[in-house]
């Protein structure tokens, strides 16, 4: 049994980092991630985290210095969001190709312009195709536990990719809950020996080139580049199995069980269901419970792992479901819909029968998605069973 504390999601993430024993941390503060950076800094100052804390001038340098540290064999951590993540994008996008198992919390935030410093998923969804693993958390305890699990996933030899463990700005970053801190010895046993740079050893006594130029005409440039991309895709698919195994091991060791890829809530006989991601899921479950009390056969699918996309888990969850409503907290501008909706719509094409899918967007710029909003989502989705299919995306907070 670990120690019980009361903390917000940003402090929970910092405790997860501390228990993972990183060697180097670099974090540049930005709302609503700032207090996470402050907790990390205080933990280092107090000796709770025995790591080098890099003082850099911005997010671009944050990821750049961690790349060097990881190449030299260090376990590393950072966090960012919003415009900080945008500033970090060049080295951020380079990290998966270097096969560096860096762990990073995105304390999700909406985009600009108009100006916004409040929660949303626009930042994480904008970088979803870069090659990082993305896991989204529902509550504060899950934030702490997933940060620790992220290291075991990232450093697995069949994965060796960076991992984002994402928690909602405002709703989880500042939400205060009772959480359990695992014992350090148990976490050490769970993570095992550090062996970060088995695939490449950056050593001044043995100079080597990292990330050489590929492509062009002639030689093996294009084929080498293709091999890298194919290998990254294979490792992303490997990650689905590794994520599942690591979550199972976590549950057995610590007694807290999470759906590693997709959570199925009251789906056993559901005729229709809603799809959620992140902290909105609790309100969605309450709405489903209310619908069930009225005799409605409603259910919910919560996506925990969004990249790699858990296609087979989604297909299993959709067994028997005849209509879907997908709630996004971000916008895919080219499709006048949400990115989770796009992926779910694609997934339905791997199922023999047709499942109509409705797109909902809510919770932008920190707006709440209440049980009443989810009641509307459920009602609209249920009417699809009678042939009433909306012609376009429904914006939940448009008149709030």
Number of strands: 15
| Integer-rounded radius of gyration | 21 Å
Contiguous low-pLDDT stretches (5 residues minimum) are none
**Might you state the CATH topology name of the largest domain?**
Rossmann fold
With helices defined by DSSP (H or I, 4 residues minimum), what is the helix count? Answer: 13
Approximate shape: globular
For the largest beta-sheet, the strand count, sense and barrel status come to: 7 strands, mixed
Mean pLDDT: 95
Topology:
Blueprint: E1 3-8, H1 9-20, E2 24-25, H2 34-45, E3 52-53, H3 59-71, E4 76-80, H4 82-87, H5 89-94, E5 103-108, H6 122-126, E6 133-136, H7 140-154, E7 163-168, E8 176-181, H8 184-191, H9 221-254, E9 262-265, E10 272-277, H10 281-293, E11 298-303, E12 305-307, H11 311-317, E13 323-328, H12 339-348, E14 357-361, H13 371-384, E15 394-395
Parallel strand pairs: 2-3, 2-4, 4-5, 5-7, 6-7, 10-11, 10-13, 13-14, 14-15
Antiparallel strand pairs: 1-8, 6-12, 9-11
Helix pairs in contact: 1-2, 1-7, 7-9, 10-13
Descriptive report:
The protein has 400 residues and is of the alpha/beta class. The protein has two domains: 3-199 and 234-254, Thiamin diphosphate (ThDP)-binding fold, Pyr/PP domains (Rossmann fold); 262-395, 3-Layer(aba) Sandwich (Rossmann fold), CATH 3.40.50.920. The protein contains 13 helices and 15 strands. The chain has helices at 9-20, 34-45, 59-71, 82-87, 89-94, 122-126, 140-154, 184-191, 221-254, 281-293, 311-317, 339-348, 371-384; strands spanning 3-8, 24-25, 52-53, 76-80, 103-108, 133-136, 163-168, 176-181, 262-265, 272-277, 298-303, 305-307, 323-328, 357-361, 394-395. Strands 3-2-4-5-7-6-12 form a seven-stranded mixed β-sheet, with helices on both faces. Strands 9-11-10-13-14-15 form a six-stranded mixed β-sheet, sandwiched between helices. Strands 1-8 form a two-stranded antiparallel sheet. Strand 6 (133-136), helix 7 and strand 7 form a beta-alpha-beta unit. Helix 7 packs across helix 9 and helix 10 crosses helix 13 (371-384). It is globular. The mean pLDDT is 95.
